[in-house]
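If you are new to this repository, start here. Below is one unmodified record pulled from the training split, so you can see the exact layout before writing a loader.
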Amino acid sequence: MNTEYEIVQDIYQDLTDFDRQDKHNEARRRNFAIARAVQHQKAQERGYDTRKAPFGFTFEDNEMVENPSEQAVLCQMRMLRNRGLSYGKIANSITQQGYVSRTGKPYNSGHVHLLLNPTKRMVA
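And here is the target side for that same chain:
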């Protein structure tokens, strides 16, 4: 049976471990942020446009303009959602029509949900 002293020692050790892990995670986040900033800077130095336009738009001559093919996908998604289809059924329908995401992959329910509800995205 543990004495009160041993219980307190265990709690202290758990808190120390938690604090150490938290500091490790924070340092890791900082390092990733620095690495992303360096990659962004190097890409800009090479002349790449590193801005990311929202889905349905693109940058042309430093101006954000509508992307007709992506706007068509969004319009189709909204129409299907207004008919009462689930996000999964919308994704299947869009994929069957031959549409793919910017990365060339088929749409899934999570992607459709984010595109139809852009204000509900989590901000880190």
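Two things worth knowing about this chain: Residues 57-120 form one domain. The mean pLDDT is 86.
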